[in-house]
Amino acid sequence: MELYKKEDKEIIFQTQNRDPFFNYLTEIIVSFIDKKKGRVLDLGCGAGRNVLAAARLGLEVVGVDANQKSLEIARDFVGQMRLSGRTKFVKTNITKLRPKQFGMFDYVILQEVIEHVEDYQSLIDFAYSSLKKGGKILITTPNDPKQWNLLDDYAEHVRRFKLNEVEKALKEFKKIKIFTIGFPFHRMVITLYNQLLKLRKRHHEAKSFRKNKIFHGFYYLVGTIFLRLDDLFRFTPWGTTIVAIGEK
Asked: Which PANTHER family does UniProt cross-reference here (predicted)?
């Protein structure tokens, strides 16, 4: 990802752990964790946002990522919250995992991950094999190839998904819940931002949102309000992001 290649740890932390959209995604994921005890596997854990959220609930969490810089941030983040005892971080390529490599889990999180890999089905199959009976896979991923934009380029996404593609990928799960979030307001903001970048002939830069604390505070407040309003439209297929829950 461009973020890891170009930015320092502070910008990565702010982007991944202090962004209204990513924090909102974590809130959604956590809302489907209904056990007070158990094990969670976060594949592609990044800077540890979901690891911390699950550990705060009292669960044991394993975070896996290939990027050393993001794992260092995640360890520091969890350590500052005094939750290192409930967490473990592993540096490895998540596309080369062996079945049940980390044991069995009650939940497997794939948040903004499957759009980065060519063989996403193998990753979902690994998650299925790592889940106990009744366990849940928790997925978020960009919706609708027609919504492709400059942020997808920046994040080095391989694809955006259609709803039926995600549903098909979860065919082994007995119970599936799929919906979209981010319509109409988040989608409107993304569209306007992309038009502005194209007009100015510029590319997205994460640090441009983080330099000015006043601007970042305004962005966080407005973004949070818009996402709450978007909750009213979860029944539509037009959101920016797919949320999928599968129970084994």
From this structure: TRANS-ACONITATE 2-METHYLTRANSFERASE-RELATED (PTHR43861)
